[in-house]
Amino acid sequence: RELAATQSGVELFEGAEAARTFLASMLHQEGRGVTLALRDYYPGWNATGCSSKGGKPLLVESDNTSLLQLFFDDHVMPHDAHILDVRRASEPAAPSFPVAAVLGINIFRAEPLRSIAERSYFMDAVSRAEVSWRAAWRQRYALAEALMSLHSLSSLSRAGSDLGVVAAGRYVPHSATAAVLRASDAHTFDADE
Asked: PANTHER family attached here (predicted)?
């Protein structure tokens, strides 16, 4: 509070809802893409053991099918958002999204050296994100349809039908995927650089 009082132009927001409202007013402008750069408050992040709970906020508008939010950071890891705290904008007090739900759609590990060598590095990542985002929405829609069908089938089953359930393929949790198992925790630059 003292810092906010001594610097002009600094606004202090308390609570997730106030932060959500402020960020939405800055970022969600119809018809134009908006970029925002956030710098983490290292002492606060460090106090949480450098965990996502003290990380930069990303409040995902998960109910909005016309809004794709992306966050690039060189500390994001395939098994841990690490420096990002990714939550539903509609329920910021709810638990954070698991990294498997947002990696490659909303959050990306930025590779600084690749972004220098490959001019289209970020544009390629945005294109991949759009494809993944659309696929995720199709999967949600298909899941909703399947649940409605299952509910209908359950109703029929209770009415006397004998319906069997066929097992689909083997489930592989995100933590056991090749991307996580092959991932490195090494960073391009140390935190103190």
From this structure: SI:DKEY-32E6.3 (PTHR36960)
